[in-house]
Amino acid sequence: MARRKTRKVASQPRKGTRLRARSTASRAIKAGLAAVIAGVAGLLRAVMPSGETLRTFMAGAWRSRGLRRCAGLAGAAVVTALLSWAMLHSLRTSEQYRLDPGRIELAAAPAWAKGSLAARLKADIEDDLRADLSDLPEGSAFDGQLMQDITERISRSPWIRRVVRIERRFPTRPDDYSRLLPVLEVRTPAVAVETPDCYVLVDGDSVVLPLTLKRDAAELALFSSQLTRPIRTVRGVAGSAPAAGQSWNNEQVAAALSMERVIRQAELDRSLPIEAMELIGIPQQPDARGRVHYQVGGGVVLIPDQTRLPGLRVMWGRPPVHASTLELSPNDKLEVLKNRLRGLDSVADTRIDLRDRG
User: Fold this and answer.
1) Cβ pair 209, 187 in contact under 8 A
2) Is there a contact between 186 and 108 (Cβ–Cβ < 8 Å)?
3) What is the pLDDT of residue 1?
4) Rounded Cα–Cα distance for residues 68 and 72 (Å)
5) Do residues 334 and 268 lie in contact, with contact meaning Cβ atoms separated by under 8 Å?
6) How far is CA 358 from the centre of its chain?
7) How distant, in Å, are the alpha carbons of 191, 297, 352 from that of 294?
8) Quick check: 224 and 279 in contact, CB under 8 A?
């Protein structure tokens, strides 16, 4: 009878053997970690000074006058800082140093106006600013964030050019309270741009002011009489004016403001009072390359006071903002203008052309 072939099966390690192997590996790891910790501790003991050495060093250092002085100053600084913090915390929570933005003191009188116009504008501007600040919560007079919030709110007004600073007024009597006094710069109208319906006031930064005048000669004359200096009208500006507080980005407006600055700086009104400007052949916007193309013969025409100088026109040409090398500089044009005025026996119905370099 044939024998069956038997297959040898590899013997598996017993469960106890595996546990003993794992225990041996764990003891080896723990022994290695203990050796590393012992080595680090020995290194620290070798590097760090002993207790006696440290006591000797501290005793010697304390005998140093300079070190004692530095330690005293450092201690005094810490004590001062703690006292300051405690005092500031006490002031922040005191009712006398609480601020109500609704009670803010405003001084927004326009320096360019006088009489009833100045009083009316001052009241209107201050009322609008108080309304803008009315929903701000109460805060401490020492709160920098509150100062920043107030500055941002005030700066949104179309009348305010900038907030110069905000002064804090602290109480001097037990029954007094803290107050804020913003120092403001109110926008000044530079020209009155004539539109089909009204005159739009624009300041020197091209910002439209929240005040318009009817296209009525009597109303314009009344308004000008309440200004510290007369305002000039500008004709020939195309397009609609933007909302109050926004810049009027128009090359025609830029030309008028540039010409206005020349007239003011040269004090031309003393010898030749200019009543209005007329813009001819000036585009509203530059081309794609930023160039402003005037029409042939285009530019600014200055119109003097017609009650004193009837018919006189000064053909200025391009203002400084659109200066051209084909024309004289503003200073040269002013000199030519003065010479021609002196050489005329009568200026009635006269045209003075300053556009030609010759």
Assistant:
1) yes
2) yes
3) 47
4) 6
5) yes
6) 46
7) 22, 8, 20
8) no
Residue type, 36: V
User: Do the strands 208-214 and 299-304 form a parallel or antiparallel pair, or are they unpaired?
Assistant: unpaired
pLDDT digit string (tens) for 214-248? 999 899 999 999 999 889 999 999 999 999 999 99
Question: 353 or 98: whose pLDDT is higher?
Answer: 353
Pairing assessment for the beta strands 179-186 and 189-194 based on DSSP bridges: unpaired
In the numeric block, which tokens belong to residue 45?
């003991």
Q: Rg for the chain (alpha carbons), in Å? A: 41
**Angstrom distance (rounded) from CA 65 to CA 57:** 15
Q: What is the mean pLDDT of residues 338-357?
A: 84
- Mean pLDDT to the nearest integer, 145-163: 92
Contact 328/336 with Cβ under 8 angstroms? yes
CA distance 341 to 346: 9
Q: Which residues pair with 279 in a beta bridge?
A: 300
- The pLDDT of 168-182, averaged and rounded, is 78
Amino acid at site 304: P
Tokens 């903002």: give the residue.
Answer: 321
Is 247 strand, coil or helix? strand
**Cα–Cα nearest to 237, from 300, 288, 313, 187:** 300
Output the six-digit token pair for 174.
Answer: 């037990």
What is d(CA 14, CA 127) in angstroms, rounded to the nearest whole number?
96
| Token pair for 233 | 């009208």
* pLDDT of res. 61: 60
Helix axes 51-62, 65-93, angle to 10 degrees: 80
Count of Cβ atoms closer than 10 Å to residue 284 Cβ:
13
